[in-house]
Design a protein that fits this description.
Elements (H helix, E strand, L loop, with lengths): L3 H7 L5 E3 L7 E6 L2 E6 H20 L5 E6 L5 H13 L3 E7 H12 L7 E8 L4 E9 L2 E10 L4 H18 L9 H17 L5 E3 L13 E3 H7 L1 H17 L9 E5 L6 H11 L5 E2 L7 H13 L6 H4 L2 E5 L3 E6 L3 E6 L4 E2 L1 E8 L8 E8 L8 E8 L11 E8 L5 E7 L2 E3 L2 E4 L7
Parallel strand pairs: 4-5, 6-11, 8-13, 11-12
Antiparallel strand pairs: 1-2, 2-3, 6-7, 7-8, 9-10, 13-16, 14-15, 14-18, 17-20, 18-19, 19-23, 20-21, 21-22
Protein name: Heat shock protein 70
Organism: Panagrolaimus sp. ES5
Length: about 425
């Protein structure tokens, strides 16, 4: 467990995480006081299976195909894992689209008639991730222009601040908060979420701690206190919003609508921060339920993909998304060279040249990374391209043209050409996903 982020999250999660990289990280859960390990993909697959069963019960038909939404900052590896989870639920994935895109569709077809060329700023603060997407809407075409965000920042980070505040209050009352049992941690995090939601509509709220320790009091937390302890998180949100605008040299006046997505976007401090950016809350689209607009958009798009609707606005839907993170290779000086650049329309392809480094080198392996940093170690290793059967020759004289292609499904493919002859290559992903 060398990953700093995983170590950070372990201190916040209400379950244990066990490293087992050959099969992906495993978490542990407790059923009837018995600890059981389960992979993250299996958890996701079980959720999809439950949703599928609920839909079957509701409509008395068995769903076989699905449009699945993911955070805009989901990596290639994470999208592949989502495909694996869908297999667990016996679902054929028509397409994976991002949650901000689905929200824009849900808003446009359910609540608002777009004008051609309108620009939509989608602010999506989910439970565990934060995304900003700027989209251009033309007729039935929803086109992403830029994606920004923080995959490690979401509503639960605000919950955790309240969780830590609760621990401090309990400690002052003499309660033993060291090595809290998983069940108590879970109840505290649930209570923290309730408190956060209450402070979105009230200026103060009691925090019920007697469910955690029977003799504990119920201290009052005010919205002002909560916002003060959240300043550093709010600053991160603001930074990403500004970066999204700057990426396309856009000004606040260029945005026609600001769409709030995700339950945590209801926090008043979010609206205040966005008003400071856009200077005008008349652009804010408040008619949409932030918790449901993504699901509605996915349903509209699924209907379009399956040609299941005769409504012109749905039947003619076109979605164009962009690559959230660059995909590339390592070059001298441990630098990262993007081949497929962030914010490029998907599907996309580009080529790079490989030279042999040894005399009569007969094969080559090329590590592939994903990220935004110039430093290779700060990006994510996602796959390795294997090129077999290179022709003999002195080091540096044998050259291969390698073309990377990213498909709509998120699948990465590669083709190598040497002396005008195409060579079959294989891609080995960093984590062989297994669902049990």
């Amino acid at each position: 467990m060398n990953d700093k982020l995983i170590k950070k999250f372990k201190s916040e999660w209400t379950f244990d995480l066990k490293g087992n990289r050959p099969k992906g990280n495993l978490c542990e859960y407790i059923v009837n006081d018995t600890t059981k390990p389960i992979s993250a993909i299996s958890v996701s697959g079980a959720i999809l299976k439950s949703i599928k069963e609920a839909a079957e019960k509701r409509f008395d038909k068995r769903p076989l195909r699905a449009v699945i939404t993911v955070p805009a900052y989901f990596s290639t590896e994470q999208k592949k894992a989502t495909q694996e989870a869908a297999q667990f639920a016996n679902l054929n994935v028509i397409r994976i689209i991002t949650e901000p895109t689905a929200a824009a569709i849900g808003y446009g077809l359910g609540h608002h008639k777009y004008k051609d060329g309108e620009k939509l700023f989608v602010f999506d603060l989910g439970g565990g991730t934060f995304d900003v997407t700027i989209m251009t809407i033309s007729k039935q075409c929803f086109k992403s222009e830029v994606v920004r965000g923080d995959f490690h920042l979401g509503g639960r980070d605000f919950d955790h601040l309240i969780f830590e505040w609760m621990k401090q209050k309990l400690a002052r009352e003499g309660k033993n908060i060291e090595n809290l049992h998983q069940k108590k941690r879970y109840r505290m995090m649930l209570q923290a979420q309730v408190v956060k939601e209450a402070l979105s509509v009230s200026h103060e709220t009691p925090v019920i701690l007697s469910d955690i320790f029977e003799t504990a009091t119920s201290p009052i937390l005010t919205r002002k206190e909560f916002e003060a302890m959240s300043k550093h998180l709010l600053k991160k949100l603001e930074t990403e919003c500004q970066a999204a605008l700057q990426a396309k040299n856009l000004k606040a006046k260029d945005i026609d609508h600001v769409l709030f997505v995700g339950g945590s976007s209801r926090m008043p401090m979010v609206a205040t921060m966005l008003k400071n950016i856009f200077f005008d809350d008349k652009k804010f689209s408040k008619v949409v339920n932030p918790d449901e607009v993504v699901a509605a958009g996915a349903a509209y798009y699924a209907a379009a993909c399956m040609k299941a609707s005769k409504i012109p606005e749905i039947a003619g839907l076109v979605v164009i998304e962009v690559l959230p993170l660059s995909i590339g290779v390592e070059v001298s000086g441990q630098k990262f060279k993007p081949i497929l650049h962030a914010n490029t329309e998907v599907p996309c392809e580009n080529s790079f040249e490989l030279k042999t480094t040894e005399d009569n080198q007969r094969s080559a392996s090329i590590p592939i990374y994903e990220g935004l940093s110039e430093k290779i170690e700060e990006n994510k290793f996602i796959a390795e391209i294997m090129i077999p059967e290179l022709p003999p020759g002195k080091a540096g004289t044998v050259k291969a043209n390698v073309k990377l292609n990213l498909q709509l499904s998120g699948m990465l493919t590669a083709v190598a050409t040497v002396n005008g002859v195409a060579i079959d290559v294989t891609i080995q992903y960093s984590t062989p996903f297994e669902v049990k």
